[in-house]
Amino acid sequence: MKSLILAVLRFYASSIGKKIVVALSALGLLGFLVGHLAGNLLIFKGPDAINAYAAQLHDLGGLLWVARIGLLVLVGVHIAATLQLAAANRAARPQEYVVSATLRATRSSRLMVLSGLTILVFVIYHLLHFTVGNLHGFYDADGAYRLEDGRQNVYKMMVDGFRVWFNSGFYLLALGLLASHLSHGVSSLFQTLGLTTPRTRPLFRLAGWGFAVVICGGFASIPVAVLAGLLK
Amino acid sequence: MNLTLKVWRQKNRNAPGHLAEYEARDIPVDASFLEMLDIVNERLIEKGEDPIAFDHDCREGICGMCSLTINGKPHGGKGGVTSCQLHMREFEDGQTIVIEPFRARAFPVAKDLAVDRSAFDRIIQGGGYISVRTGSAPEANAAPIAKDVADRAFAAAACIGCGACVAACKNASAMLFVAAKVTHLNSVPQGRPERDRRALGMVRAMDEAGFGNCTNQYECVAACPKQIPAEAIARLNRDFARASLKETLAG
Ligand code: HEM
Ligand code: FES
ipTM of the predicted structure? Predict the structure, then answer.
């Protein structure tokens, strides 16, 4: 057992090992994004649909906590590895060029740390806003977000939340940076996992953009619909 | 043509460096970039000043010794060309040209524009070879190798180990160099028996030398005078993952 643990640590200690850990954790997070979006879009089917979905999730009980802790681990691993890589990258060139040039790197690829950290700040805010805030009832002081049967009125929570301009504003800003993160990240992931070939490279680039647009456009449609008065 | 040069001057590895300005007058447009520096150096020597140190050897784009960062771009950024094969006609009369060394912690400056690239030798020692004698020309001709495999290995073998990939990379990563060597040797039947050991050994030597990590931005590919493709890096990632999995589980 000890030698297995040491071997895994040795893999993680290597540059490519860390990159593969980043890619695999990202794969899990991408899966979460798809599931989360699918759930959120139920809001367009009306209050009953999304409230029933929320109730179902909460009824999972222990399983929900397994998923939450799993996600937390994925995010933690993704951040720890990327920040370690970024620190090593900075150290690898102690003397910067006086004149530096960029030959072909995309802007998104150069903003990965910034877009990632913005997503992190957003996720914390988002959890305080919709998950913890609600649980601790400060949002719910007068029971305004309870249905008659005592369950959460997620629909009203979302609509009221997004009516506040700075909530929607920050949400949309974070989605813009998430789109940037994914437009580079998704195609990068295939390269890191060694799946890219000359023939598939353009396909994966397109997939990165496509994924970014569909996911972020999907999430953005909700605050936009609320602000436009389509959801009330 | 007349040019203004801003050249990185640094006495030795530990001394601080700075950009020094030189007027390069009456440079023939047909001169190569290194010949232009030769002319400037002759004038410096005539004046009793210390000539600019820079690396070179073959001057025909095959040895990988020349290593200049020209206006922020390794080998001038034309792509597919080494500094020695770059000609002054690519520049404009009156232009200011900033010349710096290839910059990376793993490539310490020896003097001025000359850097110590022995980190690449240590990476090769990590596995960039075949341990047994594989014969000579007759054996090579007799070994059946599929055309696509031979082409891929040959394209990777074009790497001259100049280090432009490291110099261009935002993270001073040596992945394209290592990927070229691993793709070359791991593709051909003579190299395949040591495939796993090679991927692990070379990547570890690369990490140890203090190079950065790849962020899949392909600045290296754009700067490479031999146009090694990004697919080599995907292949290295795959070979390293495979070898690591085997090593981790089988021990
Ligand atoms: C929903 C959350 C997130 C998703 C879906 C996601 C997705 C991805 C993907 C697909 C990659 C490319 C992996 C590869 O190159 O193989 C990546 C890379 C990266 N992520 Fe994230 N990420 C998320 C959150 C974060 C956060 C919170 C940070 C905060 C630091 C972050 C920082 C980075 C960095 C710096 C890279 C570049 C790593 C490199 O190229 O070496 N990400 N991410
Ligand atoms: S001097 Fe040999 S490649 Fe430029």
Answer: 0.93
